[in-house]
Every structure is written in structure tokens, then in C-alpha cells.
Amino acid sequence: MSPSNPANSLGQLAASVALTRTPPASATDSPAKIKDAAQQFEALLLAQILHSAHESGSGWLGSGGDSSSDSLGDYAEEQLATVMAKSGGLGLAQMIAQGLERKAL
To answer: How far apart (Å, rounded) are the C-alpha atoms in residues 6 and 50?
Structure first.
């Protein structure tokens, strides 16, 4: 099993969104779903930023990098990004949600 890569996750999300037919906004876009999708998107962006920051090759927490520490580091980055996005993050989720809610009306 290979470690999760935020760049791959972002690419997969973009591909699935592009290939998915979107039903009418009024049928599926509740404010809660819009907020959740916006937070997930911001979490992906934050995970990519965190992954890039640790990609310098020094390993997790300054130790030598092996496959288990790489997997642990990827998981930690994803979880930190999710918590950050749910706590407000960079504010992108809120801006995206507001724009989508206006468009859904």
C-alpha cells in the first residue's frame, strides 16, 4: 500500500468533479453540503502546502526518512490540514461556500 499523496488526492478530486454530471443546484446543494465540500477542498490545499514544506528530504520531525515515517508524516499532514480547515484555516472554505451558496440561489 503506497502512502497517500495530497497532490494525487487533489488531482483525483479534480478529475472526479470534471467527470461528474451536476444535478440542478436546488436538488442537492444544502448549505451544510456546500460548507463541507468547501472545507474538504481547503483541507486538500493545506495538505499540499504542508507536504511541500516537508518534502525537503529531512524526514518527519528531523529524523531520517523511511517508508513508515513517510506514511506517518503524510497521515499527520492530512489530519492537520483537515483540523485547520474545520477551524477556519486560511478562510478559503468560507469564501468558497459563500460564493457557491449565492450561485445555488
So the answer is: 9
Q: What is the DSSP string of 27-60?
A: HH--HHHHHHHHHHHHHHHHHHHHHHHHTTSS-G
Sign (positive/negative) of CA torsion 82, 87, 88, 89? negative
How far apart are the C-alpha atoms of 19 and 15, rounded to whole Å? 6
pLDDT digits (tens, 9 = 90+) for 32-78: 999 999 999 999 999 998 888 877 655 555 555 567 777 888 888 89
Q: Which residue has the cell 500500500?
A: 1
51 alpha carbon, distance to own chain's centre = 12
This prediction's pTM: 0.62
| Cα(29)–Cα(7) distance, integer angstroms | 26
Residue at grid coordinates 456546500: 34
Instruction: State how far the Cα of 95 lies from the Cα of 41, in Å rounded to an integer.
Output: 12
Going by C-alpha positions, the residue among 40, 22, 31, 20 that lies closest to residue 105 is 31
